[in-house]
C-alpha cells in the first residue's frame, strides 16, 4: 500500500519518515518517504500481518533524520484486516466460490431455508459441494443461514444471518 504525506506549503526539500505502530504500540516499521512533487511524499509499505496500524509522519530537514523541519506531526491509520475481510465477505455474498445446500422447500417449490458457505478458492468450494451436506471447513471464510417466508406463493420475508 502507498503511504503519503503532503506539506501545506509545497516544500519539496524535506525528508519525511513514517514510524508504523501495531495495536500494541510497538514500532513494526520505519519508512522513509520520497518527494514526488509539490510537497507530496510517498513510499510503499507492506504489512507482515493483518490488523490496524498507526503511522506517525515526522518531517526532517536532513537525510539523517536528526533535525526536525518544523512541521506538525501527522497521524495516519492503516486498516489492513477489515478491508480484506469485507472484500472477501462481499465476494462471498455475490456467490463467488459459494455453496448453497441444506435447503428446504414448501409444497409449491419455494425455498424456506438453506445454508450458504463461502470459500477462499474454487477448489475448496468444489470440494465442499462434493461432500455436501457434510461439513467441509478447509478454506471456509464465512457461513450464513437463510430463511424465507411466503404468502400465496409470494415471498414476504427473507433473512440471511451470518453464522461464521
**Corresponding CATH architecture of the largest domain:** Sandwich
Mean pLDDT: 90
Q: Would you list the SSEs in sequence order as H and E?
A: EEEEEEEHEEHEE
Largest sheet: 4 strands, antiparallel
Topology diagram in text:
Layout: E1 2-6, E2 17-21, E3 27-32, E4 34-37, E5 40-44, E6 52-58, E7 74-79, H1 81-93, E8 98-105, E9 111-119, H2 122-131, E10 140-151, E11 154-162
Antiparallel strand pairs: 1-5, 2-3, 2-6, 4-5, 6-7, 8-9, 9-10, 10-11
Structure, described:
- The chain is mainly beta.
- It has two domains: 2-79, Immunoglobulin-like; 86-162, no CATH class.
- It contains two helices and eleven strands; from the N terminus they run E-E-E-E-E-E-E-H-E-E-H-E-E.
- The chain has helices at residues 81-93, 122-131; strands spanning 2-6, 17-21, 27-32, 34-37, 40-44, 52-58, 74-79, 98-105, 111-119, 140-151, 154-162.
- The protein has a four-stranded antiparallel β-sheet with strand order 3-2-6-7. It has a four-stranded antiparallel β-sheet with strand order 8-9-10-11. Strands 1-5-4 form a three-stranded antiparallel β-sheet, with no helix packed on it.
- It is elongated and about 80 Å long.
- The two termini are 28 Å apart.
Keywords:
about 45% strand, 2 domains, Immunoglobulin-like, about 160 residues, single chain, four-stranded antiparallel sheet
Could you give a quick summary of the protein structure above?
With 164 residues, the chain is mainly beta. The chain has 2 domains: 2-79, Immunoglobulin-like (Sandwich); 86-162, no CATH class. 14% of the residues lie in helices and 46% in strands.
Amino acid at each position: 500500500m502507498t503511504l503519503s504525506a503532503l506539506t501545506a506549503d509545497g516544500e519539496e526539500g524535506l525528508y519525511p519518515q513514517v514510524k508504523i505502530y501495531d495495536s500494541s504500540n510497538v514500532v513494526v516499521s520505519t519508512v522513509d518517504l520520497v518527494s514526488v512533487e509539490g510537497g507530496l511524499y510517498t513510499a510503499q509499505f507492506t504489512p507482515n500481518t493483518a490488523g490496524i496500524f498507526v503511522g506517525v509522519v515526522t518531517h526532517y530537514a536532513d537525510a539523517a533524520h536528526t533535525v526536525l523541519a518544523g512541521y506538525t506531526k501527522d497521524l495516519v491509520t492503516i486498516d489492513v484486516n477489515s478491508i480484506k475481510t469485507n472484500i472477501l465477505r462481499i465476494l462471498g455474498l455475490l456467490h463467488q466460490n459459494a455453496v448453497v445446500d441444506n435447503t428446504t422447500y414448501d409444497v409449491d417449490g419455494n425455498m424456506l431455508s438453506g445454508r450458504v458457505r463461502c470459500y477462499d478458492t474454487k477448489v475448496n468450494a468444489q470440494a465442499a459441494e462434493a461432500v455436501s451436506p457434510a461439513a467441509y471447513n478447509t478454506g471456509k471464510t464465512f457461513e450464513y443461514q437463510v430463511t424465507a417466508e411466503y404468502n400465496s406463493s409470494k415471498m414476504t420475508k427473507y433473512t440471511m444471518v451470518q453464522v461464521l
